[in-house]
Amino acid sequence: MSLKLHLKPHEKIILGGAVIKCGNNPVNFFVENNSVAILRQKDIMTEAGATTPARRVYFVLQLMYIDNDSNNSKFFERFEGLEQEMITAAPSSRRYFVEIRDCITSGGLYRALKTARELIDYEEQLVEQANIRLPIKLPQVSGLTEAGSP
Asked: How many CB atoms lie within 10 A of CB 103?
């Protein structure tokens, strides 16, 4: 079954590892062999955009997906390191990693990316809740005025 894609003007996609950019006019096309990696612009994360632990997980999974090699030890080791860091910091994130690992082992890297997107949303919720519950209090230093001078 072919996959129909509609690209907006100047929209980019990754198709089988190649970055393709639409011209000035929208275009429709069909991918007959949809076993290749396809990512729409809205789903592409740049390295500069991987600013949080969950976003770094997504970025590494994206590299695995584009490379079409879930057995790439370099990417998988990086994933495992990030997984350990996140589970240590937020044990409640473990369920996302269980699902992501299941996707990786079954060859469903696109599904792993979708779960990583959910992990990003979850991470944002955790940070938002932490900011509400833990207002930042600056330490009081005795002997200083509000301007910071003695």
From this structure: 20
* Distance, CA of 84 to CA of 87 (rounded, Å): 5
Contact between 123 and 97 under an 8 Å Cβ cutoff? The reply is no
Using CA atoms, how far apart are residues 19 and 64, in angstroms rounded to an integer?
16
Nearest to 118 by CA among 78, 50, 58: 58
3-state secondary structure of 138: coil
- For the purposes of burial, counting CB atoms within 10 Å of the CB of 57, is it exposed (0-12), middle (13-18) or buried (19 or more)? buried
Q: If pLDDT is split at 50, 70 and 90, which confidence band does 150 have?
A: low
What is the C-alpha separation between 132 and 48, in angstroms, rounded?
Answer: 27
Phi, psi of 146 (to 5 degrees): -60, -30
pLDDT digits (tens, 9 = 90+) for 92-146: 999 999 999 999 999 899 999 999 999 999 999 999 888 877 666 666 666 655 5
Picking from 97, 80, 113, the residue whose alpha carbon sits closest to that of residue 14 is 113
Q: pTM, whole model, 2 decimals?
A: 0.81
What are 105's two structure tokens? 């082992």
State whether residue 77 is helix, strand or coil. Answer: helix
**Are the C-beta atoms of residues 59 and 50 closer than 8 Å to each other?**
yes
SS3 29: strand
